[in-house]
Write a structure and sequence with these properties.
It contains 3 helices and 5 strands.
Length: 99
């Protein structure tokens, strides 16, 4: 069974591992997410060494279908964020899958 790791769980783990006050860890984490979000909003690529890369990709307008009714509708163009795992993370996940 898989579990979801939340920001609160990450904060608690970082607090325990570093000995830094929970409020300080929360503030640092919040600021990091803000900086990542700002970079993505500016169209920049965010590389997190050993983890992966976040990039903004443009999706063109296209026609979609309701799978239940088959009715076609227009899907508007949009920007989306893609994640590409680093080689190290990909290798670690492959090892998990093999075991």
């Amino acid at each position: 069974m898989s579990t979801t790791v939340t920001r609160a769980i990450i904060t608690a783990s970082a607090t325990e591992a570093t000995g830094i006050a929970k409020n300080d860890v929360t503030a640092i984490g919040q600021r990091m997410f803000e900086l990542i979000g700002d970079a993505l909003k500016a169209g920049e690529t965010v590389k997190l060494t050993g983890f992966g890369t976040l990039a903004v990709r443009s999706r063109a307008e296209r026609v979609g279908r309701n799978p239940r009714t088959g009715t076609e509708h227009r899907i508007t163009p949009r920007h989306t964020v893609t994640f590409t795992p680093s080689a190290r993370l990909r290798e670690a996940l492959d090892e998990l899958a093999e075991s």
